[in-house]
Amino acid sequence: MINNPNRPLRVFLCHASNDKPIARALYKRLIANGIDVWFDEEKLLPGQYWRDEIPRAVLDSDAVVICLSKNSVSKEGYLQKEIKAALDAADEKPENTIYLIPVKLEECEVPYRLRSWQWVNLFFDGNNFDESSYSKLLRSLETRAKAVGAAVSVAVQNTSVNEIKKPDENKTLNEDLSLNMKQAILQPEMKEPTPKIYEHNKRLTQNREKEVNLISQKPQNIVSKNIATKPTGQFSPQNKTSDKVEDKRDSKPTTLKVLDIVSVLLLAVSTYLALIYAPEEATMGQVQRVFYFHIATAWVGMLGFLAAAVAGIVYLRTQNPKWDIIEVAAVEISLVFFFITIVLGSIWARPVWNTWWTWDPRLTTAAITELIYIAYFMLREGIEDPDRRARFGAVYALVGSLSVPITFFSIRLFRTIHPVVIGSADPSATGTFDMTGGMQVAFFFALFAFTVIFIDLFWNRIRMGNLAAKVEQLKLKVMR
What is the pTM of this model? Predict the structure, then answer.
């Protein structure tokens, strides 16, 4: 790129269509500072093929400002291609080059692939941007301008976006740009700061020192909403009341605490009914008592796998990360319960079938289901990008759930020696028995108890997932 100190810095403004009003305001501010901003609704001409023009504009720009919001982070479509084009261009830049500048227009999670670049919180109140944050953005663009030999004007003072002269619709795009640049250049360049600006800068410096001191003394306050959203010029330490509110929100709900206790009591009662209350089966003897927990764990295991499939479908529709957390929780808990099912089945099979394992259709399909969901976690861990990992997990959980009905109906579809307790069994099945009244009580209570236990563990695991996500965000903020 040819250095020409007389040319303005070229900046590509990447944004979601839903953020167009704020992006337009940022475009006006940057234009007023003598920056040549590529903004689609201003630069694209009628008849141009925008799918070619936009990537070309990214490559021709000296810097790319990526506007981040809840809309842009979760939005699929051409915006992601713009970001990818900018990332590809950034890979070709020398090390320590300021080229990509993520700008958060509101509190949102920065996409994983952009977290390597320092971002700025450029919040918009409907009339003005936070001036201290805008100054940071402008300093970055000045640094980039010096590196490429371009010019950036910093003479424009605190000006409302609404006060910036709007380009005349009858003028050409080049005339509009010249008009706005002239508006910036005609401002007198100040060699010495006025007393008002001096006091403003002094106050900003003091506030930054307070912020650094507070963070070093109380790191946990970084997650506080007030620190995350208040402009630097209006910073104030988090008070004790909001700290208590934050702690209360993260503490375990009372309902969940009660559910923990109920789950333990139900497990104890179910154990008593299975091992003591239920009568001994005439043919198999004491080993038949394994059946009550074997069926109950299989039930909640399959229930969780189906719940993961539903969560995956919802995630694919909404792109909301909370559904990925729910999906992972369901698979993780069900994987444990299904493993217990297989182990208990082997314990039962040894005295009844005279073997720990046989490649019966039910046992084989159950083992395949367990291996499918073990592979689910192994493959997820191999994907670094959280968004891609969540999408992969959702599709995998949906496809993997097909093994659940196959496993359930295998004893009814294929010739098998596995017993069928409810319904008609294959004549070759070994271990079939009729339940008495006491056995039915133990059986259905075990189903109920393990369903409650599953819900309890599921809820706790979702909370752990949410807390882990908060910890990751805290780590990123501390690293910044």
Answer: 0.52
